[in-house]
Write a structure and sequence with these properties.
heterodimer; A: alpha/beta; Rossmann fold; globular; B: alpha/beta; about 25% helix; about 35% strand; binds adenosine-5'-diphosphate; binds magnesium ion
Chain lengths: ~250, ~475
């Protein structure tokens, strides 16, 4: 069975259609990448999968391990294994990252019929996973994302992903704004989490990230539709020829 | 005797064989509604008060009759219906009050059951936490424990009415010295008709061996509740006092006008913590308590320290400004507040810090949370008098909004009459964003947990001031109060 199966997905916001019939299937263990110009609907796709209510689904289906995600509220989707590393993680003043994560870990564990992690077990896990992305654990005593640098925010997202052990990881431009060293650290953190059960959807604007997180399939998203899918060489081709090349090809083909 | 609302005072007196001079024979539950000198005499007589106490009440009443209800509080959107003071009954007592219980074993089991339902584990609390409890059920204190231990330390902690009997010299010395009996409309009303409350005296150099705790609640229909609390910490003494209350559902507005006076002598410290959870009215703004309270502390001696911490989640309307008069040199006044308004609740609360002595410090941290159609107003006064050199105030005033229909308002007034003063004021307004909730949801956290987490984070500086157990209760209370405000 596929891990994530999206069929003919249409989503709109404020009456404007953004996703216009998108289909995508990810099998366990696979890494898929979505590339596309700004405004093509990449973040929308990630937020729709995660269950943000601003977006109205007018048609189509999204299944995770055969379960209908569209019937679930966002927290249940997360508990079922969806994780979204946000392009712009929000700050939550007054709530320490550790406390936040412990609440998250334990609500997900409860859903999976696992015992609550005690303080000791939790801190042990924190230490281990923070090292994966070279995140200073002192940062985790600060409020969620508050006062984090751009790079720290991105690393913190990947760290959270490691803590929650999702089955379907969606990364929305986790590379944007990172220098090459930070990019390597983030990619390394992601690669540590690859496994035969886990699927990844890596959204990016540039192919640079894909040199480190090597995808099985690359899709090009244009104006709410996947217009081309291919191997990792498609990313290189895009990089070389630019998005306008694809736009022209698509226009010509239509 | 069950009370028939149509009974006049005369009839009532008749029926209950009431005659002047035979007051101890009155075996009644509730006075019929109405307020006049006679009612005050009955209350005073019913409590077996000495003449000076009655005179004090009557003096307050005489002034009160000429006073008008304050209208300046900021209560937008509320159809303020004037209170009919003649429609309120000013005295009620539990049935078997004559044999006031000496310990919990003697307390009416039905009453204990009510406490249980309200989530007040009185016995447990008393036994496990070693907290002395002076529970006020309506107007008469029914349970007081741990007296012996306190007595050993020389601490007096008793119902106010008992203090009037047993420690008249102390009561006379301090009563009305911080909040005069004619201070304001509601304080004067309280002075005239107060039925009970708590009295605390900590002698010189004594650190009170336990936290003192009192639970107040309103139980009977249309019975105004007028408590009076007086706490005196003598030189070098320390006490932490906890006041908390819950009230069952009510359809009619009820008036609650309490007065609290604190006096801290040289090197003394008083920590006063409150959880206020009176019935707030239903989701349409029907019913709920009117909570008009006067709380004031006098830092009388040098290096004295008074700290108010309050968590206000209840009441339809709140009018409350726990204040400090920093008279002693190097004295410290603190105010930490969380006020939450939901549905149609209105809170107008804050503090006054009056700097009189030299090198006095005050610290104000106010957190207002508005949800639903609730309105939250911070009203503060920081006044530095000419003789108060090198004094400092820091004020932090934060508001949090949930939704688009609520409001937050701040009216800070700063009056500095000494140029060596340092006064700092910081304010912020934040909104719990959908995006924050969604972020939490995406990590598997429910919206309710997300809101309570964010709100508790917002209030952390105030909760840090509460005694541990109280802080836990306060957090739970905020969560419950916001339960339905998440989409
Ligand atoms: N919440 C929203 N409200 C209004 N418009 C939106 C919203 N989210 C996305 N859009 C619009 O949808 C389009 C796709 O946006 P987005 O998914 O963020 O693109 P990408 O991530 O590929 O840059 C853009 O035109 C954007 O303005
Ligand atoms: Mg985007």
């Amino acid at each position: 069975m596929s891990l994530l199966e999206i069929k003919n997905l249409h989503a709109s916001v404020e009456g404007i259609e953004i996703l216009k019939g998108l289909s995508l299937t990810i099998d366990p263990g696979q890494v898929h990448s979505i590339m596309g110009p700004n405004g093509s609907g990449k973040s929308t796709l990630s937020r729709v999968i995660a269950g943000e209510e601003t977006y109205k689904i007018t048609e189509g289906s999204v299944l995770l391990n055969g379960k209908n995600l569209l019937d679930m509220n966002p927290e249940d989707r997360a508990r079922e294994g969806i994780f979204l590393a946000f392009q712009y993680p929000v700050e939550i003043p007054g709530v320490s990252t550790k406390y936040f994560l412990r609440t998250a870990v334990n609500s997900i564990r409860a859903h999976r019929d696992l015992d609550e992690l005690d303080a000791y077990g939790f801190l042990k896990l924190v230490k281990e996973k923070a090292a994966w992305v070279q995140l200073d654990p002192a940062l985790l005593d600060r409020p969620v994302n508050e006062g984090f640098s751009g790079g720290e925010k991105k690393r913190a997202e990947i760290f959270q992903m490691a803590m929650l052990e999702p089955t379907m990881c969606i990364l929305d431009e986790s590379d944007s704004g990172l220098d090459i060293d930070a990019l390597r650290i983030v990619a390394n953190g992601v690669n540590q989490q690859r496994s035969p059960e886990r699927g990844f959807l890596v959204i990016t604007h540039y192919q640079r990230l894909l040199e480190y997180i090597v995808p099985d399939v690359v899709h090009v998203l244009l104006d709410g539709r996947i217009v081309r899918s291919g191997g990792k060489e498609l990313a290189l081709e895009l990089e070389e020829k630019g998005y306008s090349w694809i736009e022209q090809e698509v226009a010509a083909g239509a | 005797m069950p009370h028939d609302p149509n009974t006049t005072l005369d009839q009532w007196a008749e029926q209950s064989d009431y005659k002047w001079g035979f007051v101890t024979d009155i075996d009644t539950d509730t006075l019929p509604p109405g307020l006049n000198e006679e009612v005050i005499r009955i209350i005073s007589a019913r409590k077996g008060e000495p003449e000076w106490m009655l005179e004090w009440r009557l003096g307050a009443f005489a002034k009160w009759k000429d006073m008008v209800e304050p209208e300046w509080a900021h209560w937008p959107d509320h159809d303020w219906r004037p209170i009919d003071y003649q429609a309120i009954s000013y005295y009620s007592a539990p049935k078997r009050d004559e044999d006031r219980p000496k310990s919990l074993d003697e307390v009416d089991p039905i009453l204990l059951e009510t406490y249980e339902k309200l989530g007040i584990p009185l016995e447990e609390r008393a036994a496990l936490a070693g907290v002395a409890v002076d529970a006020v059920f309506d107007s008469v204190s029914v349970a007081t424990t741990f007296r012996d231990k306190l007595a050993e330390a020389g601490v007096i902690f008793c119902p106010f009415s008992e203090a009037v009997q047993k420690h008249p010299e102390l009561v006379k010395k301090y009563l009305g010295k911080v909040v005069s009996r004619t201070d304001n409309f509601f304080a004067a009303l309280n002075a005239a008709v107060f039925t009970d409350g708590s009295f605390v005296y900590i002698p010189k150099g004594v650190r009170c061996p336990m936290e003192l705790s009192t639970y107040f609640r309103i139980n009977q229909m249309n019975t105004g509740q007028f408590e009076r609390t007086l706490i005196v910490a003598d030189e070098g003494a320390y006490v932490s006092y906890l006041e908390g209350c819950t009230a069952p559902q009510r359809d009619e507005n009820q008036l609650h006008a309490a007065v609290v006076e604190l006096v801290a002598m040289e090197d003394a410290e008083i920590k006063y913590s409150t959880i206020q959870n009176w019935y707030p009215g239903d989701e349409n703004g029907v019913g709920g308590i009117y909570n008009f309270v006067t709380k004031r502390g006098l830092c009388s001696g040098d290096r004295s320290h008074i700290s108010w911490t309050q968590v206000e989640t209840g009441s339809a309307m709140t009018w409350k400004y726990p204040s400090c008069i920093l008279k002693g040199d190097d004295s410290i006044g603190e105010f930490y507040s969380v006020a939450l308004t939901n549905n149609y609740q209105q809170a107008d609360t804050g503090t006054k810090m009056i700097h009189v002595g030299k090198r006095t410090h005050s610290n104000i941290v106010s957190k207002g949370i508005s949800a639903g159609k609730g309105h939250n107003t911070y009203r503060g006064l920081v006044k530095i008098l000419p003789g108060s050199t090198d004094s400092r105030n820091y004020t932090q005033c934060d508001s949090m909004l949930m939704g688009d229909e609520c409001g937050a308002h701040t009216f800070p007034v700063i009056e500095v009459e000494n140029c060596t003063a340092q006064v700092e004021h910081e304010a912020s307004t934040t909104k719990i964003g959908e995006d924050q909730i969604f972020y939490c949801n995406q990590r598997g956290i429910s919206s309710e947990d997300a809101v309570s987490m964010i709100v508790n984070g917002f209030c952390r500086e105030v909760f840090a001031e509460l005694p541990m157990e109280f802080a836990v209760e306060a957090k739970a209370l905020l969560a419950v109060s916001l339960e339905d405000s998440v989409g």
